[in-house]
Amino acid sequence: MNRRTFMLIAGGLPVAAFGAGAIIYPQLVTRQPAEGLPEPSNLTRFNSPVIGPQGAPVTIVEWFDPSCEACRAFYPIVKQVMDRYPGQVRLVLRYAPLHEGSDQAVRILEAARKQDRFIPVLEALLAGQPSWAAHGAPDVEMAWQIAAAAGLDLTRAKPEAQGDDVTATLAQEMADLEALGIAQTPTFYVDGLELVDFGPQQLADMVAARIEALG
Fold first, then answer.
1. Rounded-to-integer distance, Cα 75 and Cα 126, Å
2. Rounded to an integer, what distance in angstroms lies between the CA atom of residue 145 and that of residue 151?
3. Contact 46, 172 (CB under 8 A)
4. Angstrom distance (rounded) from CA 108 to CA 112
5. Dihedral sign, CA of 92, 93, 94, 96?
6. pTM of the model
7. Strand pairing of 187-190 and 193-194?
8. What is the tens place of the pLDDT at every residue in 167-198?
9. Positions in the chain short of pLDDT 50
């Protein structure tokens, strides 16, 4: 099975399914990890969006695509994992705009960061994903309107989204994506180690093991 299969399973019960993850998802094994540890600079950049405390001892890096159904399904699950360890886990989000139109959604998110509206806009785009992110026919203007409803000032955001800094960020994300050999989303790393045995329970177990190891 793969991430698309996970999305199909989890589509109707993204939050409640977490507790049953050990039963439902143990067979969700995906690709083999790359040999050796990834270059740390390919995993996190100084300007990567961070949710949770900057100084948390455990770091989850998630490569995500705003148009990815499995990323949408995983979002509340990752929050649940973080809520289990207040102050001890941070989430670093990396962009993997693999679907058509996802690069424009990333530009919206980067514009939202400039207005300190990243999380509400991210959550609004994920909630509205079934409406704006149809594969092959994304409705970017609808995504903008969803972001506006989440509090984004479009008068400022639209020109800022096309800025050279945002273009450079997108280029860096794609370069790191290629360096790591990631071709599907979401892809998770916990303290530099890839979650190869893919699934909610596996992610929770990996984080728990890191917390325990740190004492």
1. 9
2. 10
3. no
4. 6
5. positive
6. 0.84
7. antiparallel
8. 999 999 999 999 999 999 999 999 999 999 99
9. 1, 11-33
